[in-house]
Write a structure and sequence with these properties.
mainly alpha, Lysozyme, about 0% strand
């Protein structure tokens, strides 16, 4: 009985918000706004927040089955690239601020790699899909669209080529990735 009372007292001492992704997002709002402006001009900070929500539900210590770490689920090999390309030798994937800074910087690199798109929305979709599945796939989709005489700067013209180039499961995961970000944005982060 005493043990149960002590356990309940210990649980009561832990703030409920410690496990609330929306509370953690609010704590990091200024940082996300700063990083969006610095690394991804034109992206709404709320979309950046929704992206973090999709990746980890705002858990700094998140680790995927494949070994991706931190709030933006960065793979260790990618972290090495970020340390070099973003001049962030101190990148710490278990630190919310460091990992977010590294992820936003990496997204900027991905954005540059895939090249310009027709609209900001097309660019965001292509960038997030490239972040999720690799820029090489988006570049292949762009080439395939161009070969068929389609405008490769429109995201809608790239989507069908995902199905031609990738396995069904891989393609469906990648195509739904940006849709999930948009859902989180509309549900929780639109006011940012």
């Amino acid at each position: 009985m005493v043990g149960a009372v002590l356990l309940l007292a210990a649980l009561a001492a832990v703030p409920a918000r410690a496990h609330d992704p929306l509370f953690t997002a609010a704590e990091n709002r200024e940082l996300v706004e700063e990083l969006a402006a610095q690394y991804l001009p034109g992206i709404r900070p709320g979309v950046g927040a929704a992206w973090v929500h999709q990746e980890s539900r705002w858990k700094a210590t998140a680790v995927s089955r494949k070994g991706a770490r931190g709030p933006l689920q960065i793979m260790p090999e990618t972290a090495r690239d970020i340390r070099r390309a973003c001049r962030m030798p101190e990148l710490d994937l278990s630190s919310m601020s460091s990992s977010l800074r590294g992820g936003f910087c990496y997204a900027r690199l991905v954005r540059r790699q895939i090249g310009p798109m027709a609209t900001a929305e097309d660019l965001n979709e292509a960038m997030f899909r490239a972040y999720n599945g690799g820029a090489g796939w988006i570049l292949k989709e762009r080439r395939a669209a161009k070969q068929k005489g389609q405008d490769d700067a429109l995201a809608e013209n790239l989507r069908p080529h995902c199905r031609d180039l990738r396995s069904p499961d891989s393609c469906e995961e990648n195509l739904s990735y940006y849709q999930y970000i948009q859902r989180w944005y509309k549900k929780y982060y639109r006011a940012w």
